[in-house]
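Input/output pair, single chain:
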Amino acid sequence: PDARGAGRPSLRDEHALMMREVTSRAHAVTSEADEGRWPKPQLRELLNYLHLEVLRQFLDEEWLLFRVVRHAPEELARLRRDHLELRLAIEVLDQAAATNDGAAGWSPSNLSATTRDLLSQLERHLAVEDELAILGEVAPATVSFVAQLHEWYALTEGPIADLHQLPGELGADAALARLVRLDRRAPVE
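Output:
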């Protein structure tokens, strides 16, 4: 947590955590793809994180940054364009995943390059957001308005959901949301 936020994370802290999580998942995809193998489970995990955490973060940040830097409409318009471009890049990875092990013109090397491009694009975008947040007052993290903590992803999306680590009613909401997202085709243990 940022010292200026009295123990509360800043937007920059949130970005750093999210970037570490995306990078580790992207690395799992590129490692397999660089070996010439189609990384089906690794790609699915990356896409799950991108959809559940990164895209949600974009929505939360547009609202948050609009409040903090209302005096910079050009910068906000640029961020919205970046968000759209990142959404489109995620859709490209969705299309790759839907090709079922690299059919329809997707090769592992093509997937690896696309994943690296998305990672670079996201890293540049988050750096711009960090700088924009500094233009206004210090931007608090999106959790300051009851957004879900990024740390919850690991607690709710794995094979075992650790409900004891999720606080109160927010934890119940996270657990219920996870139940709704369960894959109906997967066997229940």
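The chain has a mean pLDDT of 76. The two ends are 37 Å apart (CA to CA).
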